[in-house]
């Protein structure tokens, strides 16, 4: 009988003291001018609330509802111009075009001895891309077909 009362008293007693200690620690940190020991970045979704900062850590919260900083009206969805692309993308395009023009294997080119082997690969890729697009379109429309 005595043990549950003792446990309840021990659990309940530090809560008000902890809140006072936390405020005192924040004041002490502000007085010393020392940076916090830890900075934690938290991404919130929905109606989550930002956790409280303590004297030892600063909590920086951000919402994931709008992950882009550029407003939707100002975003550009057009393809990136060639002069603005990275050299990796430029080299990949040049390699793909060069392989097709030379009729190398797996290119589906009418020129060269190995060009015909890539046609089935190309058709399979196109088929898979079409199926993914169809599945995405079905998920976008509630209830399947209109």
From TrEMBL:
Q: Specify the domain of life of the species encoding this protein.
A: Bacteria
Which N-terminal stretch is annotated as signal sequence? 1-19
Q: Which UniProt keywords apply?
A: Signal
Q: What is this protein called?
A: Secreted protein
The uppermost taxa in this organism's lineage are: Bacteria, Pseudomonadati, Pseudomonadota, Alphaproteobacteria, Sphingomonadales
